[in-house]
Write a structure and sequence with these properties.
The chain is of the alpha/beta class. The chain has 15 helices and 13 strands. Bound molecules: uridine-diphosphate-N-acetylglucosamine and uridine-5'-diphosphate.
């Protein structure tokens, strides 16, 4: 009887999943004499996923190409569950790997469960304890914990959250967050700057915003704050790679496109974005990944949200929740611009989210403790 290799199916679909799954894919490829790796993208994001596939040189085995302009949660979910269930039927994996808290991740977990295939959840155990913030991600994560057999938790607080919810200690593995692997992989490469912005001032603030909870009035407030910051503070410009979601891109362009000191640019390739983070004076963002990366680079990050599932950076004193009220955002930014002691306090480099070895740990655990046993 020929020895049949176990099949690992890795599913992802959005920009952050690609960045955080890429190191896992690379680590699993190194073990290709142990398992067959099949990669499947839903392409819930088309353009900003492809940027990452190019950068990490990943050619998906299956590309479902499901993105539609301004897609809704129900339509995306329905399409993804049908298509991913077909993938499960065809591939018949021994384990499915998903990452994070997107619709793609949650639905891949569900489709895998329907096929009675165990799910390994990368970045398990993040919680805000507020079901509508972030929406729908907080509930996606909880559903994924229920759907998953193996929980790859990035930090001790994520492990604790899973234990508190009754998940079995033997199925929880503290690995660190694979985003740090990706960041270190990219930051160590020789980089030739490709972005040419006409920056006139000595400092720039790098910003991103895309969260569903910030659609409507909050994103307008955020834009108002950006306008006020550049108008009131000499020597400061803002660089804003705008997320392609029309619920964000339209109000942002409407409110900010006439501002000389605010550079609205298309989403950056990860290498370029890392370069821009490294050189920024400070960062304002509602992104999950950016909250994890900025501390490693020693950049203060002001989080444009009311809650965070990543308390480690706040506890380390390098991130601060500032919400979405314009006056509060402006005051917090000016505090860091005008008070050097405060700025220095938030500018040290810390790595509460991982040591860059998370993906190797996941590959090892899969090999030695999960697939080896089955
Ligand atoms: C999704 C995730 C969110 C994650 C974010 C990262 C869910 C529910 N939300 O939110 O957790 O933080 O991705 O960016 O899964 N679009 C394009 N081109 C692209 C990508 C998006 O045009 O390459 C536009 C399309 O009109 C698309 C819309 O953005 O319909 C929204 O994309 P979607 O993935 O549904 O939501 P995000 O807000 O990006
Ligand atoms: N990012 C990028 N280019 C950009 C903006 C962000 O490469 O123009 C990276 C960023 O470094 C982080 C990830 O994308 O690793 C975050 O993705 P996003 O904000 O879309 O999602 P979230 O992290 O909030 O789920």
């Amino acid at each position: 009887m020929p020895h049949l290799k176990k099949k690992v199916l890795a599913v992802f679909g959005t920009r952050p999943e690609a960045i955080k799954m890429a190191p896992v894919i690379k680590a699993l490829e190194k073990k290709n004499n142990h398992f067959d790796l099949i990669t499947c993208v839903t392409a819930q994001h088309r353009q900003i996923l492809d940027q990452m596939l190019n950068l990490f040189q990943i050619k998906p085995d299956i590309d479902l190409d499901i993105m539609e302009a301004n897609q809704t949660l129900p339509s995306l979910t329905a399409k993804a569950v049908t298509r991913l269930s077909e993938v499960m039927d065809n591939v018949k994996p021994d384990v499915t790997l998903v990452q994070g808290d997107t619709t793609t991740a949650m639905v891949a977990g569900l489709a895998s469960f329907y096929g009675q295939t165990p799910v390994g959840h990368v970045e398990a155990g993040l919680r805000t304890e507020n079901r509508y913030n972030p929406f729908p991600e907080e509930i996606n994560r909880r559903l994924l914990s229920t759907l998953s057999t193996f929980h790859f938790a990035p930090t001790q607080s994520a492990v604790n959250a899973l234990l508190a919810e009754g998940y079995c200690q033997d199925d929880i593995f503290m690995t660190g967050n694979t985003v740090i692997d990706a960041l270190l992989m990219i930051a160590s490469r020789e980089y030739k700057p490709r972005i040419s912005l006409d920056l006139q001032e000595s400092h720039y603030i790098l910003v991103t915003a895309h969260r569903r909870e910030n659609f409507g009035q909050p994103i307008k407030n955020i834009c108002k704050a950006f306008k006020e910051i550049v108008q009131k503070n000499k020597g400061i410009e803002i660089v804003y790679p705008v997320h392609p979601n029309p619920n964000i891109a339209e109000p942002v362009r409407k409110i900010l496109s006439d501002q000389e000191k605010i550079h609205l640019i298309p989403p950056l390739e990860y290498e370029d974005f890392v370069f821009m983070m490294k050189n920024a004076h400070l960062i304002l963002s509602d992104s999950g990944g950016v909250q994890e990366e900025a501390p490693s680079l020693g950049k203060p990050v002001l989080v444009l949200r009311e809650t965070t599932e990543r308390p480690e950076a706040v506890e380390a004193g390098v991130a601060k929740l500032v919400g979405t009220e314009a006056s509060v955002i402006v005051a917090e930014v000016e505090n860091l611009l005008n008070n050097d002691a405060e700025y220095q306090k938030m500018s040290h480099s810390v790595n509460p989210f991982g040591d860059g070895q998370a993906a190797d740990r996941i590959a090892r655990i899969l090999n030695d403790r999960i697939l080896g046993k089955r």
